């Protein structure tokens, strides 16, 4: 399958929603689903007009807590508690130490495992690789709500990539993801159509262009 690779997270988000809606099949009465989708976007911390305009600031703040804090959050779960690196640390230091000791390693992997209550995190694995002088980050997600959640998860994965890259004094390159189940809910159809209609006009702002 072709990878949805774009220069900004916002453009990747638009295209992921579009292809999921266009090619997805009705998994049940609630949502349409596209299996095995690949995405790619920059890990760099850069302004994104699409995310700024259409992203949910409350959700983004709560996902920050989910990924980086063990404090309570409105989503009711914590990836920070479930994260485990090669030496079972949750602060990414074992990943950094491993990459520093052996830059060519393929073992700098963080897994997120459920607590054994039949709940499984949406994002399950992140791999950090040093290749051609860049830190590349690859993640696997069992499923992502392409419209409501993808961009918020992606921002957090990119932030993790930057933390590892900064600790190694390396540029943070791309984040590449494999999404087992990319889905959109039928109840969001009106909002999705508005997003796909209006969103592309904000891509020019990402590239330094003006609005209409």
Strand-helix topology:
Layout (H helix, E strand, L loop, with lengths): L3 E2 L3 H15 L1 E2 L4 E12 L6 H6 L2 H12 L10 H4 E2 L8 H9 L7 E4 L10 E9 L2 E12 L4 H18 L4 E14 L3 H10 L4 H4 L6
Parallel strand pairs: 1-3, 7-8
Antiparallel strand pairs: 2-3, 3-8, 4-5, 5-6, 6-7
Helix pairs in contact: 3-6
Mean pLDDT: 92
Overall form? globular
What is the helix content?
25-40%
Strand content: 25-35%
Radius of gyration: 17 Å
What is the helix tally?
Answer: 8
Order of helices and strands: EHEEHHHEHEEEHEHH
Main pleated-sheet profile: 8 strands, mixed
How far the N terminus sits from the C terminus, by CA atoms, comes to 35 Å
- Uncertain segments of ≥5 residues (pLDDT<50)? none
- According to DSSP, the number of beta strands is 8
Which structural category fits the helices and strands? alpha+beta
Compact overview of the structure:
With 212 residues, the protein is α+β, with helices and mostly antiparallel strands. The chain is built from 8 helices and 8 strands; from the N terminus they run βαββαααβαβββαβαα.
What this model shows, in words?
- With about 210 residues, the protein is of the alpha+beta class.
- The chain is built from 8 helices and 8 strands, in the order βαββαααβαβββαβαα.
- It has helices spanning about 10-25, 50-55, 55-70, 80, 95-100, 150-165, 190-200, 205, and strands at about 5, 25, 30-40, 85, 110, 125-130, 135-145, 170-185.
- Strands 1, 2, 3, 4, 5, 6, 7 and 8 form an 8-stranded mixed β-sheet that branches.
- Helix 6 links the parallel strand 7 (about 135-145) and strand 8 (about 170-185).
- Helix 3 crosses helix 6.
- About 35% of the residues are buried.
- The mean pLDDT is about 90.
């Amino acid at each position: 399958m072709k990878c949805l690779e774009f220069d900004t997270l916002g453009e990747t988000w638009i295209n992921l929603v579009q292809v999921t809606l266009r090619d997805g099949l009705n998994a049940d009465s609630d949502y349409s689903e596209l299996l095995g989708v690949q995405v790619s976007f920059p890990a760099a911390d850069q302004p994104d007009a699409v995310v700024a305009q259409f992203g949910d600031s409350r959700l983004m703040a709560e996902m920050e807590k989910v990924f980086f804090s063990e404090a309570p959050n409105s989503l009711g779960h914590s990836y920070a508690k479930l994260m485990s690196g090669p030496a079972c640390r949750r602060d990414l230091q074992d990943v950094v130490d491993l990459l520093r000791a052996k830059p060519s390693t393929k073992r700098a992997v963080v897994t997120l495992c459920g607590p054994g209550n039949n709940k499984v995190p949406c994002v399950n694995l992140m791999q950090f690789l040093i290749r051609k002088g860049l830190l590349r980050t690859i993640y696997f997600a069992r499923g992502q709500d392409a419209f409501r959640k993808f961009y918020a998860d992606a921002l957090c994965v990119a932030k993790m990539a930057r933390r590892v890259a900064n600790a190694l004094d390396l540029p943070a390159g791309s984040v590449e993801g494999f999404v087992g189940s990319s889905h959109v809910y039928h109840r969001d159809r009106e909002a999705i159509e508005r997003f796909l209609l209006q969103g592309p006009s904000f891509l020019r702002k990402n590239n330094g262009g003006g609005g209409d």
